[in-house]
Every structure is written in structure tokens, then in C-alpha cells.
Write a structure and sequence with these properties.
Layout: H1 32-38, H2 56-65, H3 71-74, H4 78-85, H5 93-101
Helix pairs in contact: 4-5
């Protein structure tokens, strides 16, 4: 969270009361639809961290020998979810897109 998120802790199962807020700097796992709704490069509400399967180390493994990697085990929706990640501003987007295409 780039800024405090008032009254959202209860909805995400993080708080005990309806008035709880998520503090600035907190790391949460949220559904993709919520992350897309909260992510705005102008207002800086949240920032998105790439899942490990889309990071550079895994892309290197895929480029070496993609036939031995069980994508269903690592992420059953690898291609669909990866294409949705391209909506977020990340410097690694071109590499992620190329990895998905390969």
C-alpha cells in the first residue's frame, strides 16, 4: 500500500472491526480485480509486485528449457494472468510479454 487504505482491512480479512484501515507500506495479497481497481499511477494508492513465476530468474529458466517446467503447478493460469499483469506499470513488461509469447 502506497497510502493508508481506510475501512478496507475488514473486507480483506485483516481487521476485526469495520473501521480498521490498512497502513501505508503494508504488503497484502489481493485479488487481481481489486489490484486493477486500486492501481492508479497518478494517485499512487498501491504498487504491484510481480509474482515469482514472472520474475527474471524464472524467465531465464523458461528460456533455457521450457519443456521441463510444469506451468500448471507453478500457476494454472500462467498465460492469462501474465497478460493481465501487463496492465500494470512495470519496467519488466516487455520481457514478460516476450516470455509469454515464447
Amino acid at each position: 500500500a502506497e497510502s493508508s487504505l481506510p475501512r478496507l482491512a475488514f473486507a480483506l480479512g485483516q481487521g476485526v472491526g469495520t473501521g480498521d484501515s490498512i497502513p501505508e507500506g503494508a504488503k497484502l495479497e489481493v485479488p487481481l480485480w481489486l489490484a486493477k481497481g486500486l492501481h492508479d499511477s497518478k494517485r499512487r494508492i498501491i504498487s504491484v509486485e510481480l509474482p515469482k513465476i514472472y520474475r527474471e530468474a524464472w524467465r531465464t529458466v523458461f528460456s533455457a528449457d521450457a519443456n521441463v517446467v510444469d506451468l500448471h503447478k507453478m500457476g494454472p493460469y500462467y498465460y492469462g494472468f501474465g497478460s493481465q499483469l501487463l496492465n500494470f506499470d512495470s519496467p519488466e513488461n516487455p520481457e514478460i510479454a516476450q516470455s509469454i509469447l515464447q
